[in-house]
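User: Hey, my collaborator sent me this sequence without any context and asked if I could get a structure. I don't really work with proteins. Can you help?
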Amino acid sequence: MPSDHAIFLDRVEDLLGARGATRDPELIEPWLTDWRGRFTGKALAMASPGSTAELSALMKLCARHGVSVVPQGGNSGMCGGATPDTSGDALLLSLRRMNAVRSFDRDARQIVCEAGMILQTLHETAAGEGLRFPLTLGGKGSATIGGLISTNAGGTQVLRHGSMRAQVLGIEAVLADGSVFSALTPLKKDNRGFDLKQLLIGSEGTLGIVTAATLRLLPAIADRRVLWAGVPSLEAARHLLLHAEASAGSSLEGFEVLAQHTLDNVIAHLPGARAPLSGRHEWHALIELVSDARGTERLSDLAENLLATAFERDLLEDAVIAANETQAEAFWTLRDSIAPAERAQGPAVQHDISVAVDRMPAFVAAAVPQIEAAWPGTRAVAFGHLGDGNVHFHVIAPPGVDPIGWQEGDGKAISEQVYRLVTEWDGSISAEHGIGQLKRDTLGRLGDPVALAMMRSVKHALDPAGLLNPGKLVPLAPVHASN
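Assistant: No problem. I've predicted the 3D structure and written it out in structure-token form, which is a compact way to encode the shape of the chain:
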């Protein structure tokens, strides 16, 4: 280790103490590989500050020594955005010790919590006061609030409540030079220039390190109805969604779609699982209606009327309302088990994409046969949040292929083609998982040059030395040959 690195680490340990800094390879190693196992890096050490003041002092120290940092929450990201590179020159920065509730205002339905708080803990904290935080996802047991903010995470409730960006009322962050941006006070109207908190949300730790946030809460759900419907096509599912929005209004909490072959795969994978409907249908829709304490009496009528009028208009082929909470959870388990069932089949490439909501059925109808024809033996699968114009478009490898070889060869070529198709449809190559290092170069090739130049300018202005999460999100500027 160069002597300047040793001096730097000695000062980090003096600043943070034994709880806040470690060079022990065994303690660091589990955090050097991303959740999907695609990226593994190295780190000088791991720093775990216990407060914003400690992180501010740490960043000032990093700025003086020119040491880059890779912020990390629960390490549950999908694009390698919290994994250091292989140089071993960066400091891995864990926010997991900063997990306190700073304040809770039940009447205002607001909580101020630190970045290291686990999403499930936030759910439980809100529930203890008769409230809820309206964002959830499969990784709620490990995902942290800071990570969710830095990636502008989505989930199954975006249709009604929006992504993480819509839940953040205020924010606190430490910048590259150690200065603290403090904007935790929620103001409904504030025209003092740029909305800087929105700039930090979704920036994946490349502009500043989120340390705390003021989040909005909602009244707890008093009751729900979960419906499962079979439809002949994704376009039919889209029409059913429009009908559900008109019929149920603000009670419509979620609308998820999956194809019949995807459901077959899940049922084969889950012991004891059963299909919700007796017949087979090309596509299925999972619909959730909810109410707070004021609307429970009319919820059953709302669900029954939605289905009755949908049948009258030939918007679905069959449907059922979960008879109880156990069956409702069973329906959601089918949806949440798509990814594990897919992994059991073998290697696949996953794409988190979006196009305009009304164009998604046509996009899937065009993209699936094109990909499967170009790579015989593959199976293209689309599922997810139809109401948001966001589906998870996965392509499963042919049986018997070498997983690593396929991922590096056909897998990369397939992803490039999927992203080109999405771009041609004026969509996004990342709807809710972020860019990280997985999609950075693709964004550089396919992104709008003006938008990319603006991103680079903002990055340089806030982090001129490039210390914050290097190699993530922001594509490198193109190199032009000299005359």
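In plain terms: The first strand starts at residue 21 and ends at 22. You can pass these tokens on to your collaborator as they are.
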